[in-house]
Amino acid sequence: MVAPNMDLHHITSQRSPLSPDEVQAWEPGFAWLAGGTWLFSEPQPGLNTLLDMGKFNWSALQADEGTGLEIAATCTIAQLHEFGGSASLPESWRATPLIQTCCEALQSSFKIWNEATVGGNLCLGLPAGGLISLAAALEGICIVWRRSGAPQSILASEFVTGIQQTTLGPGDLLRSIHLPHWALKKQPAWRRFSQTQEGRSTALLIGTRCPETGEVLLTITAATVRPIQLRFPSLPTVSELSNRLQESVKSSDYFNDPHGTADHRRHLVHYFAPQIIEELA
Ligand SMILES: Cc1cc2nc3c(=O)[nH]c(=O)nc-3n(C[C@H](O)[C@H](O)[C@H](O)COP(=O)(O)OP(=O)(O)OC[C@H]3O[C@@H](n4cnc5c(N)ncnc54)[C@H](O)[C@@H]3O)c2cc1C
What we know:
With 281 residues, the protein is α+β, with helices and mostly antiparallel strands. It has 3 domains: 40 residues; 122 residues, Uridine Diphospho-n-acetylenolpyruvylglucosamine Reductase, domain 3, CATH 3.30.465; 94 residues, CO dehydrogenase flavoprotein, C-terminal domain (Enolase-like, domain 1), CATH 3.30.390. Helices cover 27% and strands 25% of the residues. The longest helix has 19 residues.
């Protein structure tokens, strides 16, 4: 967690529970605090209490060739990036270059790089969330601890529902993201556009191809308000791809911001998608 920023005038209390169970009642104005890189980056007028997750002591990464990769929500982007470059990754996990690519697809200062967490990136739900792209493209499952009821498994591609909107309710906690072993074995290809080399992504498209069935999954992120996925039983032709893009991505799914117009984003999606399919072939 970064040092508390005294500019957050509305915050009157910061607690460091040893486990989520210590937070019995959830009140309006409470927020989970992960790396704090977004929470401390702008005024938070609706909040008065931060609940620091730093003492939960969750194991950051657990890799098992037979089951996949378990990423704790509190795992930092730097930890995941280092893991993505490790020589001991299972050879059968062909998709692992995506790990470093997606970690690097963030406009990150030194502080963000070292403090921001994977869970914070998903929960913030920005379209340019590089870890959202990774989790969605590799068919990740988000484990969510609800304030009431049993933990839930939610597809990462469905976890983010819009710009800074997720399926989380007040007080719900993202515990971890599971990347299944069979998705990690897929052949990957990707394209990214940003206005500057280390700038925020305007579009990030990732394709994967299953070595056994030939199935292709195209995941569109950063260009659209939420991740959008197109699945094909085999490599689509150029016209099949174009038709599916027209049908599946509505014009209202693209958005304008300082990093690109909706029209530019649409152009990038239609420009990159055939390149990815060609590379997967
Ligand atoms: C200059 C700058 C540039 C940035 N550029 C980018 C960018 O290019 N792409 C991008 O995606 N983001 C960007 N961000 C936003 C942000 O810093 C990152 O997305 C970061 O990953 C957030 O992680 P964190 O751990 O610091 O989250 P925090 O700031 O601690 O929390 C973010 C939000 O998620 C909630 N939260 C965190 N963890 C959990 C959890 N496990 N369960 C439930 N809720 C949780 C918090 O309550 C809070 O609402 C940028 C921020 C700044 C200041």
